[in-house]
Design a protein that fits this description.
Blueprint (H helix, E strand, L loop, with lengths): L1 E5 L5 E5 L10 E9 L2 H9 L11 E9 L11 E3 L10 H4 L7 H4 L3 E2 L12 E4 L8 E2 L6 H5 L1 H12 L8 E5 L3 H12 L3 E6 L2 H9 L4 E4 L5 H8 L5 E6 L4 H10 E9 L14 H4 L4 E4 L8 H9 L9 E5 L4 H9 L7 E5 L11
Parallel strand pairs: 9-10, 9-12, 10-11, 12-13, 13-14, 15-16
Antiparallel strand pairs: 1-2, 3-4, 3-7, 3-16, 4-5, 5-8, 6-7
Helix pairs in contact: 5-6, 5-11
The structure holds zinc ion (2 copies).
One zinc ion (ZN) binds next to helix 5.
Amino acid sequence: MRAVVYRGANNLRVETVPVPRIQSDEILVKVAVCGVCPTDIKKIQFGTVPPPRILGHETAGTISQVGARLRGFRVGERVALHHHVPCLDCHACRHRAFAQCLQYKRTGITAGFEPSGGGYAEYVRVMAPVLPGVVKIPAGNTFIEGAMLEPVNTVLKAINRLSLLSTDWVLVIGQGPIGLLFTRLLALRGMRVAASDLLPERLTLAKRFGAAAVLRADERGFCANAMRLTRGQGLDAVIVTVPSDAAVHQAQELARGAGQVLLFAHTRRGVWTQMDLSTVCVEEKDLIGSYSSDFTLQQEVAELVFSRRLDVRELVTHRFPLEQTEKAIQLAARPAADSLKIVVAQDEGESGKSRI
Ligand SMILES: [Zn+2]
Ligand SMILES: [Zn+2]
């Protein structure tokens, strides 16, 4: 089969590799769509993981083989996958810190080499520990919607880390695909969202996604304008969806006393910054983070996306064929005015009708 193999920093190659062989308690899935995620971009650009690997973890496709001992799955079923599933039983899981669970940290989907998601390949092997993370895609929904379950889950998990009351003001810094998901999900929960970004096109979209106010992040008076929304009280929460230190400092300034600042994009290790710690100790502003998904939200996320109460289709602006995965990653790394979520899509060609 064809696969995009990561061979080192900024080195992706389209290669022919063996179709993964499954065990009797595993399934093989023919990949239809795999979303390009910023965490993959980071690994590829900075070479933060040892090669060779086949990356890509926001995967949806069709079951093409079911292990002999396995019940509950059928060849031909359209499914969305989760590459991490917690054990629900360890110390971390009992604290609902699922992303710190040892089983969770082991990637359970592979297209070959060290298991790394494998979505940038024609087929993936789904191992037993992550089978509870397989979600069936309803007939009326697309593979793209299936591939969006994982990113939506990570956003909903982060929102659940906030202690908000309805009509609270939340500033979401950055209106890329993740920021827009925050905007929409917070609006659905009855929060008033102030959305900021550098690109006016994204602010227009943020309004459609339910933002009560939009702010150009580079305009003079940005902080004053954000404060004015809350009559000078400060924001109840500020979510930073861009890996910018300046944004964190702004967030820390704009949060009200005992408000919360949530980091969602600072995933790169070794990045240091200075901070006035009295804002945490005296002003009681919580600085928190959220990473990865929450298995217990899987059903809620599937209902939100498949019912289209959260319509993710508008977020996907570009599709690239598998051979052009590198282009897809380059575009995702340097977003243009008209680019949001980017996916690698392999057309199924089922009776000439694509359901991507
Ligand atoms: Zn992701
Ligand atoms: Zn666990």
